Structure formats: structure tokens, C-alpha cells
């Protein structure tokens, strides 16, 4: 009882500042980062903006910290939004009561705690559905896009394996789709990995040619996590429909991994003819450890569940629905629906500022991806005549990724960039700049300055660069082995 009462206090404070995210954007990201720190085990605080003097009075178990700038904390500028996004403080506000007061099991049918949690979970389901043009009953909550991708790719393949054993995907999918497909190959399925063109787009002709009467599933991502290229989803779906009609076979199901697309660009599952889709909470300013799968009910997409148990989530994903983070995902989705065009305009402006700022002072920079069909919040640049690792090491004050966040543990050149035909050197010297809702102009300007400084310095130390400056064509040079 005591614990509950103590934990309620900061909630009142947190909810008393509903506009803090927009305030934070105007006042720069650090305001969002300056979270208060709990001083006891009683609970966590959610205040993010500087609070008024009167409100700073000591609360049992809590110490309210003032907002800190990145300069004060010494933390690098965060430009890695494809890896993960900071949680929007409004999302945290929405989640907090579910940890402290409304902690019922949403599947409890016999009391108000259960009904209340269930109501909030269903509200979250509606927000996710509204964001993608689906009905709420088509949305299944999962632990994230990795689980949704596994569930959909393996689930659909397994359900149809009696009659159909062929799957089509692309060479540039996220590892969790590629590895699900590789696993299916070990189980006797055949998989076609479509190549991509130099800008990362698939060819619809290639897709048409790969389709077979026994293709059960086509899985093609919406926005690539490394280069931001947007695949033509509606056109892909049309190719599948036309093939089925012409050949009088049942249509292959169309799944898209939309972890990097949902909430960032308009996605409408009905208009785009998508049968199944994967969504991740932490890519849209929501919590980590939660996501969703869109699995169409009419006409019904059939799949074999991966997890068996209590039969929750239409029997497709057993296990108690984690109400607090699901509610966080719902609120993140609601905010994305509300703010998508403002976010997009803000991010596009910063993206252009970054590209212009760098290319104005640094030559021999190649943009990887397709600027005409790309998400502006993902800018992938290769810096010729610079060694990739040295570049990252020298940029310690900026949190960036070279290649995919999920593969950066290995030093292999990015398989996505290689699929575009980039040389190993250019793939190695690539940096991915991920811009988001809370990125500021000042941060972009600081990063531009750092990049210009670092690339210039590294090139000044490079014998290759000296040769280029002297007008020597490096391709004409015969290198000896030792
Ligand atoms: C395109 C894509 N798919 C799937 C995932 C995995 O998402 P999650 O972290 O929610 O499992 C990621 C994350 O990096 C991604 O970028």
C-alpha cells in the first residue's frame, strides 16, 4: 500500500507537463534526456523537462534532476535512429500508471484490474491499427519485429508446406528475415533471394520471373535499415495478384518487414495489398521489447504459431500480453499518426542540411541508396580514400553506425552495400546517419563540422589521397603484393 502511494506522487508531476515533447523539440534534445533519477527502489520518475522550483520539493524516494545538455553529460550526439529511437516522454507518461496502479493481467476476467488493463490494451491495438489502415483484430502483439518476422515467415511457410514450398525474398532484408529463410531451407523449402539494383530497389521483372505456382510467400521489406530505400509495395502486391490471375493459382501471400517504415512514411495495408507486416516499438519512439504483427483476417492469412500456450492473441502468440509496453507501443503509434507529416518535414530539412553541409566541403562522397525513393531520416554516405574504422574511431563524439546496427559487431563489409555493387572499400568507409523526431539543427551542424574536420584530417594523412590530388588514376596503378 505504501509503495503504491509513494509511487503515485511523481506520476502527478509527470502528467502535469503534457506538452513536454514539443517543448523539448524546440529547446533541443538534451531536455528530453535529462530524466529524473530514482533514489530508492520505490519507483521511477518520468519527468524530463526542467520542473518549476515549487515542484522540485523533495518527494519520498525521488530526486528530480535538472535537464542536462549533451555538453554537460559528455555523451555523444545520437544519430543512430535506425538502431533505436529515444522513447518519447509522452509514451512514458502513458505507461507509468500500468506499472504502479493499473497492474492487472489483461486476461483476468473476474475483476476490475483485469478489465481496466484489457481496455487499455485494446485501445493500444486500435492506435496501431489506425496507423496502418488495418482493423484492430488484425493486430497481434509480439516482442518486436524480429519475432513478428520469424512468426510470419516461418508460420506461413509451415502452414502451406503440404502444397507450396517456395518463398521469395531479397538479398538486402534484415538478418532476421534472411536467417528465418535460411532455416526454412534446412527444412526442405526453396528460397529465391532477389538481387537489387545499384540504388537498392528490386526489379518487378525479376520478381515476376521468380514467381512459381508453389510460391507461398513473398517477403520484401518496406524501408531498408541501412540505406533507407523504399520498395514499391503496392506494385509488388499487384505483380502477385496478376501472376495468380494469369496462371489460375492461389496468390502468394505478401509480407513486408516494416520496422523502419511504420510511423515514418504512410503505410496502408489495404491500399497496398499487404497480407502480413512486422512492426517494432523501439523504432517509433516507443519501448523496447514490444512490437506487432499485422496478420489479415479477411480473407484470412493462415499461419502456424511459433509459441503455444494460453491461446492469447488469436492463438497466434500465446503468453500474457505485457500491458505496460503494449500501451507504450499504442501511444507511440498514436503520436506517429498525429505527427507523421510534421516529423517528416523536420527530418527532411535536417537530412538536406546534413548532406549539403558535408558535400559543400568534402568531395568524393557517395550517397548509398535511392534519393528519389528513400526515407530522408536514413542517410548513408561513403567517404572515398578514408579508412572506415579510422573514421568511426575519430568520431567518438557522434553515435553513428557503419552499416547495419545489427551487424556492426562484425567487421565484414555490409552485405546490403555489397548487394548494391559497392566495392569493399566503399562499403567499409560508409557511415549511416539516422535522424529523428528529436534531432536538432544544432546537432546536425556540429556533426557536419566534425565530419568535415575528420575526413580532411584522415585524407591529409593518406598516401592514396596524395596520389589522387596529384591526378593519378588509382585504377591504373599496379600494386605489388609486398
Ligand atoms: C528492418 C528491420 N527489421 C527488423 C528489425 C528487428 O527489430 P526488433 O529490434 O524490434 O526485433 C530491425 C532492427 O534493427 C530492422 O531494422
TrEMBL record:
Keyword field contains Lipid metabolism: no
GO annotations of cellular component type: L-cysteine desulfurase complex; mitochondrion; nucleus
The UniProt keywords, alphabetically, are: Iron, Iron-sulfur, Metal-binding, Pyridoxal phosphate, Transferase
Among InterPro entries, the record links this protein to: Aminotrans_V_dom (IPR000192), Aminotrans_V_PyrdxlP_BS (IPR020578), Cys_deSase_IscS (IPR010240), PyrdxlP-dep_Trfase (IPR015424), PyrdxlP-dep_Trfase_major (IPR015421), PyrdxlP-dep_Trfase_small (IPR015422)
Q: What is its EC number?
A: 2.8.1.7
Return the PROSITE patterns for the record: AA_TRANSFER_CLASS_5 (PS00595)
Q: What Pfam families does the database record attribute to this sequence?
A: Aminotran_5
Gene Ontology MF: a single term? cysteine desulfurase activity
Q: Which GO terms describe its biological process?
A: [2Fe-2S] cluster assembly; tRNA thio-modification; tRNA wobble uridine modification
Domain Aminotransferase class V, chain residue ranges per copy: 77-446
**Can you tell me where the transmembrane regions are?**
none
Q: Which reaction does it catalyse?
A: (sulfur carrier)-H + L-cysteine = (sulfur carrier)-SH + L-alanine
Q: Which cofactor does it need?
A: pyridoxal 5'-phosphate
Methyltransferase in keyword set: no
Q: What class of enzyme is it?
A: transferase
Q: Which family does it belong to?
A: Belongs to the class-V pyridoxal-phosphate-dependent aminotransferase family. NifS/IscS subfamily.
Q: What does this protein do?
A: Catalyzes the removal of elemental sulfur from cysteine to produce alanine. It supplies the inorganic sulfur for iron-sulfur (Fe-S) clusters. Plays a role in both tRNA-processing and mitochondrial metabolism. Involved in the 2-thio-modification of both 5-carboxymethylaminomethyl-2-thiouridine in mitochondrial tRNAs and 5-methoxycarbonylmethyl-2-thiouridine (mcm5s2U) in cytoplasmic tRNAs.
Name listed for the protein in its UniProt record: cysteine desulfurase
Q: Which organism is it from?
A: Trichosporon asahii var. asahii (strain CBS 8904)
Amino acid at each position: 500500500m505504501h509503495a503504491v502511494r509513494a509511487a503515485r506522487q511523481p506520476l502527478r508531476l509527470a502528467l502535469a507537463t503534457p506538452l513536454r515533447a514539443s517543448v523539448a523539440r524546440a529547446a533541443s534534445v538534451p531536455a528530453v534526456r535529462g530524466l529524473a533519477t530514482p533514489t530508492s527502489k520505490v519507483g521511477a520518475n518520468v519527468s524530463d523537462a526542467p520542473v518549476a522550483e515549487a515542484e522540485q520539493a523533495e518527494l519520498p524516494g525521488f530526486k528530480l534532476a535538472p535537464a542536462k545538455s549533451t555538453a554537460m553529460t559528455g555523451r555523444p550526439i545520437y544519430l543512430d535512429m535506425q538502431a533505436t529511437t529515444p522513447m518519447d516522454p509522452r509514451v512514458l507518461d502513458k505507461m507509468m500508471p500500468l506499472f504502479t496502479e493499473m497492474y492487472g493481467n489483461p486476461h483476468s476476467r473476474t475483476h476490475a484490474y483485469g478489465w481496466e488493463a484489457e481496455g487499455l490494451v485494446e485501445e493500444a491495438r486500435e492506435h496501431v491499427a489506425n496507423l496502418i489502415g488495418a482493423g484492430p483484430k488484425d493486430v497481434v502483439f509480439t516482442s518486436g519485429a524480429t519475432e513478428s518476422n520469424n512468426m510470419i515467415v516461418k508460420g506461413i511457410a509451415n502452414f502451406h508446406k503440404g502444397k507450396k514450398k517456395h518463398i521469395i525474398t531479397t538479398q538486402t532484408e534484415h538478418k532476421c528475415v534472411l536467417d528465418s529463410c535460411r532455416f526454412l531451407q534446412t527444412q526442405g523449402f526453396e528460397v529465391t533471394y532477389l538481387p537489387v539494383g545499384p540504388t537498392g530497389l528490386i526489379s518487378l521483372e525479376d520478381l515476376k520471373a521468380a514467381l512459381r505456382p508453389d510460391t507461398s510467400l513473398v517477403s520484401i521489406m518496406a524501408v531498408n535499415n541501412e540505406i533507407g530505400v523504399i520498395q514499391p509495395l503496392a506494385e509488388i502486391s499487384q505483380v502477385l495478384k496478376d501472376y495468380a490471375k494469369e496462371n489460375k493459382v492461389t496468390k502468394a501471400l505478401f509480407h513486408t518487414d516494416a520496422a523502419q517504415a511504420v510511423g515514418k512514411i504512410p503505410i496502408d495495408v489495404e491500399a497496398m495489398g499487404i497480407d502480413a507486416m512486422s512492426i517494432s516499438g523501439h523504432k517509433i519512439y516507443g519501448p523496447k521489447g514490444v512490437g506487432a504483427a499485422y496478420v489479415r483476417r479477411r480473407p484470412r492469412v493462415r499461419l502456424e504459431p511459433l509459441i503455444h500456450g494460453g491461446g492469447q492473441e488469436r492463438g497466434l502468440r500465446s503468453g500474457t500480453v505485457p500491458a505496460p509496453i503494449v500501451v507504450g507501443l499504442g501511444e507511440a503509434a498514436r503520436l506517429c499518426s498525429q505527427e507523421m507529416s510534421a516529423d517528416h518535414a523536420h527530418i527532411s530539412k535536417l537530412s538536406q542540411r546534413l548532406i549539403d553541409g558535408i558535400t559543400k566541403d568534402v568531395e568524393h562522397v557517395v550517397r548509398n541508396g535511392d534519393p528519389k525513393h528513400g526515407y530522408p531520416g536514413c542517410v548513408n554516405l561513403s567517404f572515398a580514400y578514408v579508412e572506415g574504422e579510422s573514421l568511426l574511431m575519430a568520431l567518438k563524439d557522434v553515435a553513428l553506425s557503419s552499416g547495419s546496427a545489427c551487424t556492426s559487431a562484425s567487421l565484414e563489409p555490409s552485405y546490403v552495400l555489397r548487394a548494391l555493387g559497392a566495392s569493399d572499400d566503399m562499403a567499409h568507409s560508409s557511415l549511416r546517419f539516422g535522424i529523428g523526431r528529436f534531432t536538432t539543427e544544432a546537432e546536425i551542424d556540429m556533426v557536419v563540422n566534425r565530419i568535415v574536420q575528420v575526413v580532411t584530417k584522415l585524407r591529409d594523412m593518406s598516401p592514396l589521397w596524395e596520389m589522387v590530388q596529384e591526378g593519378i588514376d588509382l585504377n591504373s596503378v599496379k600494386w605489388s603484393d609486398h
